[in-house]
Amino acid sequence: MKNVTDSFVSLVHWPFAGSFGFNTDILATNPINLSVVLGVLIFFGKGVLSDLLDNRKLRILNTIRNSEELQGGAIERLEKARARLRKAEMEADQFRVNGYSEIEREKLNLINSTYKTLEQLENYKNETIHFEQQRSINQVRQRVFQQALQGALGTLNSCLNKELHLRTIIANIGMFGTMK
């Protein structure tokens, strides 16, 4: 403590103006210089520093206010986007359900159509088989009839003579005449 008071006492013993030199006693010169510089800075810089801090405070508050407004707008847009997303998901689910039901309906229609086509083909096949059977039966009947007729004609020709033949023809012509 004595050193500090000695440094203030030594202020009285300054060298005269004619001499110039550096004071190398750090403890004696630094506290005085610092107190003078700090006093000048506080006195003159107080208003400037206060203005700078006030301006900085206003800019920070404006930035916070703008950020809050932007945040509110972003939250509102986010809610709208979420609502659109929910709506789109519901529509997609509806399309999916409708698509599946449409696919099932088309599948059933295709199966029914295929069954109908198969039934028609089966009917055509059965009709064709029946027709071919009838045609074959008719052909066999015609052959049997022709063979029987040829056999009967052969028997008649061998048994009939000319006179009997003429009487048979006249009798048949008479029968045809009465039929008309």
From TrEMBL:
Coiled coil regions in record: 71-98
InterPro entries: ATP_synth_b/b'su_bac/chlpt
CDD domains according to UniProt: ATP-synt_Fo_b
Residue spans crossing the bilayer: 32-49
One Pfam family here: ATP-synt_B
Miscellaneous notes: In plastids the F-type ATPase is also known as CF(1)CF(0).
Function: Component of the F(0) channel, it forms part of the peripheral stalk, linking F(1) to F(0). F(1)F(0) ATP synthase produces ATP from ADP in the presence of a proton or sodium gradient. F-type ATPases consist of two structural domains, F(1) containing the extramembraneous catalytic core and F(0) containing the membrane proton channel, linked together by a central stalk and a peripheral stalk. During catalysis, ATP synthesis in the catalytic domain of F(1) is coupled via a rotary mechanism of the central stalk subunits to proton translocation.
Assembly description: F-type ATPases have 2 components, F(1) - the catalytic core - and F(0) - the membrane proton channel. F(1) has five subunits: alpha(3), beta(3), gamma(1), delta(1), epsilon(1). F(0) has four main subunits: a(1), b(1), b'(1) and c(10-14). The alpha and beta chains form an alternating ring which encloses part of the gamma chain. F(1) is attached to F(0) by a central stalk formed by the gamma and epsilon chains, while a peripheral stalk is formed by the delta, b and b' chains.
Family membership noted in the UniProt record: Belongs to the ATPase B chain family.
Name this polypeptide is given: ATP synthase subunit b, chloroplastic
